[in-house]
Structure formats: structure tokens, C-alpha cells
Amino acid sequence: MTQMISIENVGKTFTLHTQGSATIPVFDNVTLAVEPGECVVLDGPSGIGKSSLLRMIYANYRCLDGRISVRHDGSPIDIAEASPRTVLDIRRRTMGYVSQFLRVIPRVSTLSIVGEPLRSLGVDKAEADAKAMTLLARLGIPEPLWQLSPVTFSGGEKQRVNIARGFIAGYPVMLLDEPTASLDAANTATVIELIQEAKAQGTAILGIFHDTAVRNAVATRRFDMRDCHVAA
Amino acid sequence: MALDEPLLVADDVGKRYGTQVGCEQVSFELWPGEVLAIVGESGSGKTTLLNCLSAQLEPSAGTIRYRTRHEGLRDIFAMSEAERRLLMRTDWGFVHQNPSDGLRMAVSAGANIGERLMAVGARHYGDIRETALDWMGRVEIDQGRVDHRPETFSGGMRQRLQIARNLVTGPRLVFMDEPTGGLDVSVQARLLDLIGGLVGDLGLSAVVVTHDLAVARLLSHRMMVMRRGRVVETGLTDQVLDDPQHEYSQLLVASILQS
Hints:
The complex is a heterodimer of chains A (about 230) and B (about 260). With about 230 residues, chain A is an alpha/beta fold. Chain A is built from seven helices and nine strands; from the N terminus they run E-E-E-H-E-E-H-E-H-H-H-E-H-E-H-E. In chain A, strand 1 and strand 2 (about 20-35) form a beta hairpin. Chain A has helices spanning about 50-55, 85-95, 110-120, 125-140, 155-165, 185-200, 210-220; strands spanning about 5-15, 20-35, 40-45, 65-70, 75-80, 95-100, 175, 205-210, 220-225. Chain A starts with a strand and ends in an 8-residue tail after the last strand. Chain A has a single domain (about 35-60, about 85-225), classed as Rossmann fold (3-Layer(aba) Sandwich), CATH 3.40.50.300. In chain A, about 35% of the residues lie in helices and about 25% in strands. In chain A, strands 6-7-8-3-9 form a five-stranded parallel β-sheet, with helices on both faces. In chain A, strands 2-1-4-5 form a four-stranded antiparallel β-sheet, with helices on one face. In chain B, helix 4 packs parallel to helix 6, helix 5 packs across helix 6 (about 155-165) and helix 6 runs parallel beside helix 7. The mean pLDDT of chain B is about 90. Chain B is of the alpha/beta class and about 260 residues long. Chain B has helices at about 45-55, 80-90, 100, 110-120, 125-140, 155-165, 185-200, 215-220, 235-240, 245-255, and strands at about 10-15, 20-30, 35-40, 60-70, 70-75, 90-95, 175, 205-210, 220-225, 230-235. Chain B has two domains: about 30-55 and about 80-90 and about 170-259, P-loop containing nucleotide triphosphate hydrolases (Rossmann fold), CATH 3.40.50; about 100-170, no CATH class. The relative contact order of chain B is 0.17. The interface of A and B includes residues 55, 87, 105 and 108 of A.
């Protein structure tokens, strides 16, 4: 087995200390593995914890219950136990995450934001820029916008910048949180192509897609989070 | 030197003012290229800690070791005064909240930058001036102002000049105390972008004290949350901000105004 993501008996409960220490159990006992070249789609209604699970794998949320490991440099690394430095290295070289939001420092150009993951791997600027241009063009971001900061872009444009940034480095593991949520049909088709290309290259993908057509086009397998739901 | 060694190691560091606790039991490692943010409200001990780490205040407990260029990790308070001063002048930078604490207000902008260079042995006037001009450009100050005193600069320009003065010697570690405090929002954004770019391009490590969580999010990789002199939570910056565990971190995050 060469599981790229392994999730064993993972649960998530939020404790809100500022609101009378209310506890909000979200899910429990999630066990799931993702192999290279497959795209596993998380199913279930809003609020069931799909995004939370992706964030836990990315170490953006803490995993205090159960175990999540990601294969990095050939061996599984326990994300909850890993030092911040190791997690940053995993994010730099192994695992990408496309969220619905783009958070950037104002004034940095779109081209530079998209090329940054490649530059951080030591790729020189010209090559990173060239690849960024190709992706931005495929995703239909007009060339005059490339030198501008995406701060003032529309929601759909920001989302496409985010997708370009997520896919540029060809990470072996990708987490996709509704990457097509605010895209038109043509751009959605491009994102499906990008996902299919990544799968063909052996990327292990775990994603959330509300759009049924997208889900059917990319899913190798589905995982229903309703089975792990915990009643509050 | 090897990258698989930390640059700065704090071990159980504490500082008391009489019976008053400034900070206590602080331990962490800072690695090359990492930016660590120390956040917390006024009086939480973050500036005391920063002053200890940067050798401006001797801690009453614990050790602080820095990986020197030639002799590996060394206790900064076991060094001679001369060694420590050399370190502070060359390998370290310190960006104060108030630029007038880090600049010499009565000498020209060019001389402010050149002074740090001369401290590391630069003597050729033309070269020094050339470098000063180059750095003024990099921090986006009109090069025509090289002979003007910082007294005549705006707050944002002074802060950028202070950054140039610190970075001109090619330090490996920069301490920043509320670097964007007291600046208006548009100037803050420009400064953040500039600091973020310079830190990334130069591969600097930095310890940044701030009470502004948005600044911490944009600049830092890791974060320590302090309260009453102690570290109450530590982790990746996005993790601490998006899924805070400690009651006090939750309160801090919940108190951010949404824009």
C-alpha cells in the first residue's frame, strides 16, 4: 500500500471557551485513505465537517482525536505530531490546498502569487512566471490583469488565481475545497481537466464538490461523511 | 553552515522586575528563514521577551543561544560585551516601533544607512553612498532625499529608512517591535508588503512582536500567544488563528474586527 493520506478514527470537536465552554462535536471515527492517482470526494450536507476534515489534514485545524498521516519523502508523517517546521516543509513540497478564499499581501502581482509555490521549490523566476502564465491563460484570466494584485478581482477571478497557485507545483497530495464554487461552465471544465491531469500524474486528491456534474466527472470514489456524524 | 540547525534557541527564559514577572518559562527554537510572531495584549510580556532575545535585557532565568557564523550555538549572555555588540551591529537587526529610537534623527538618511556599513568596515565613501542609494530604492524612498534628515520624513518613510538601515549589513536575524504600529492603514499595507518581500528574498529569520493579528498572519510562519508573561499557545500561524485552543487565544481571535 502506498497511501498518500491516511485518516484513522479521526474526530473533531470545537470547544468555545469564550461562549461558556460550549462544545460542538462535528464528526467522529472518520477512517479513510487516499492512494496515488485517485480522487476521493467527500459527500454530505453543509455543516457535517467536510471542510474541517480537509483543514485538519492540512494542519490548519488541530487533530486531537485520532491520527492523520501524509506521505512525505516516502514515509508517512503524523500531522498532529509533526513540528511546525515539518508541516511547513510538507506544505511546500508535498501537499497543496485550494480553499475558497484567497488571502494575499496587497500589492503583490497575480503572476508572482501564482508562481510563488514553484519559486519556493527553487525554480527560477523566469520558469515559474512562464508556468504561471500558462495556467492563468488556461483559466481565462485576461493578460492585462497578471501584473495586478488580485485584491480587487471578482470572486470568480480570485478563485481561479487560487486554483492556478494550487496546481502550479504538481504536489503529490491535493486537497480541494469547492474549487469550482463560483466558476462558469468553461472555467469549470478547465478545472476538471486540471484535476484529471493531476490524477493521471499520480496525485492523490481529496475534495469537496457541490456541483454534481463536477463530482461525477472527477470522483474515483465517494466517502459519505453522514456515516460519521455526531449529533450535538 | 548547515540548515538543519536552529538559528536561535530560547530555553526556559524568564525575566523578573523585582517580584513582578515580565516573562517566564519561554522556550522555542527559531530556524533559518522562519518568521515567528509573538502576540498578546499590552503587558503580556512580549516586548520584555523580545528585549531579552535581542540581548538588550539580561534575563533572570534560562539561556538564549544564537548560531554564530563561525562557532555554532553560543549563549549570547556568556559572550564578551564586544562580541555581543558586534553581533547586534552586523548579524542582527532591530526595528523599533518608533523609528526615532532606531535612527539618528539629526544626520542624513544616507548617513543613517552608511553608519551600519561603516561599523562592519566599509570605508570607501563612494561605495557607501552607492549602497545607501540602492537601499533607499529598495525601501521605496525617493533617492533624491538621501541628504535629507529623517526629521523631515513622514512616519512611513522613517520606518522604511529604519528597515534599510537594519538590512544593509545583510543580517541573518531581525527583531521587530510592532513594526507597523502607529502608521495609517495604507502605509501599513505597503510596509507589510515590503517587509514580507525582503524577508522572503533575503531568507531572513525574524521575531516580530505585534498585537495586530492581521500583521502576524501576513508576515509570520509560526506564532506564540502570550498572556501574563507566559506562552499560552504556540503553533503554525494559520493554525493558531483558525483553530485556537486556549481560552485567551480564542478571545484574541474573536476580538478581531471583521472588515
